[in-house]
Amino acid sequence: MDIQWDDLRIFLAVARHESLSGAGKALKLDPATVGRRIARLEESAGAVLFAKSPQGYSLTDEGHALRARAAEAEQSIIGGIEQMRGQAGRLTGTVRIGAPDGAANYLLPQVCAQICEANPGLEVQIVALPRVFNLSRREADMAIGVSPPASGRLMVQKITDYRLHLAASVRYLARAGTPKSLADLGQHKIIGYIPDMIFDKELDYLAEVGVSHVDFSSNSVAVQLNWARQGAGLTVAHDFALPSAPELRKVLVEEASLVRSFYLIRHAADRRVPRLNRFAEALTAGLRKEVARLEALT
């Protein structure tokens, strides 16, 4: 089997961008060239690595298996180059983080921007998806979760606790009145998750405050927050997101106060990858600091 590293590098780019054009743009190659290299790799491997459709390129089972190995090889090569260049203290290459959209929208951009500012050769990709990431298939180098996984060859580290409260816009409260107790919530419009799309029990906030109805729903925290900003109703909001929504006010602060946690989840094999260890350390410290800073503003 004659497989060249450069073909694997192109394979990883297509897997990450899910298109020939996206991979070509990232690699500064013509999409037709990318397509030819993928065809050559599939021929060498004796397997179909991508399922092609009008929506793009998605990995087959064989493609997922190769991606996991290719990503490990990529990390080893990058680490070796850093050592050879005497840059062991600096981060380079690409790191992909999977995260729920609350963290992805309101925490990761500023934290990762600071890390990249200190490490000019580093590229960070943030994938915001309302579901659990499959690290075994190398959908991301690491993920942020709201609960620790119960199985898998994974490393799990608690990052920090965070707080949530009921909130609504000043305009909504002026129109509908401010609830005085949890019992009053039955008379208010409620914004929350689409019930059958709650992918983790830790996200079932409304059940914890005794609310059984939802008038406006989305699988996105950002959409829920923006609905509240427009005066649609009450929502359970992350305290760290409230500084970005000055129209909102907390209500029932004592009665409806929730605490959740973020966890950093990594593949166990990455324990031996120094650059990912250093990035994880910087990310964890940055997130703890940013959550504390934003919550102090509310």
TrEMBL record:
<dbReference type="InterPro" id="IPR005119">
    <property type="entry name" value="LysR_subst-bd"/>
</dbReference>
<dbReference type="InterPro" id="IPR036388">
    <property type="entry name" value="WH-like_DNA-bd_sf"/>
</dbReference>
<dbReference type="GO" id="GO:0043565">
    <property type="term" value="F:sequence-specific DNA binding"/>
</dbReference>
<protein>
    <submittedName>
        <fullName>HTH-type transcriptional regulator DmlR</fullName>
    </submittedName>
</protein>
<dbReference type="InterPro" id="IPR036390">
    <property type="entry name" value="WH_DNA-bd_sf"/>
</dbReference>
<keyword id="KW-0805">Transcription regulation</keyword>
<keyword id="KW-0238">DNA-binding</keyword>
<dbReference type="InterPro" id="IPR058163">
    <property type="entry name" value="LysR-type_TF_proteobact-type"/>
</dbReference>
<comment type="similarity">
    <text>Belongs to the LysR transcriptional regulatory family.</text>
</comment>
<dbReference type="Pfam" id="PF00126">
    <property type="entry name" value="HTH_1"/>
</dbReference>
<dbReference type="GO" id="GO:0003700">
    <property type="term" value="F:DNA-binding transcription factor activity"/>
</dbReference>
<dbReference type="Pfam" id="PF03466">
    <property type="entry name" value="LysR_substrate"/>
</dbReference>
<dbReference type="InterPro" id="IPR000847">
    <property type="entry name" value="LysR_HTH_N"/>
</dbReference>
<feature type="domain" description="HTH lysR-type">
    <location>
        <begin position="1"/>
        <end position="60"/>
    </location>
</feature>
<keyword id="KW-0804">Transcription</keyword>
<dbReference type="GO" id="GO:0006351">
    <property type="term" value="P:DNA-templated transcription"/>
</dbReference>
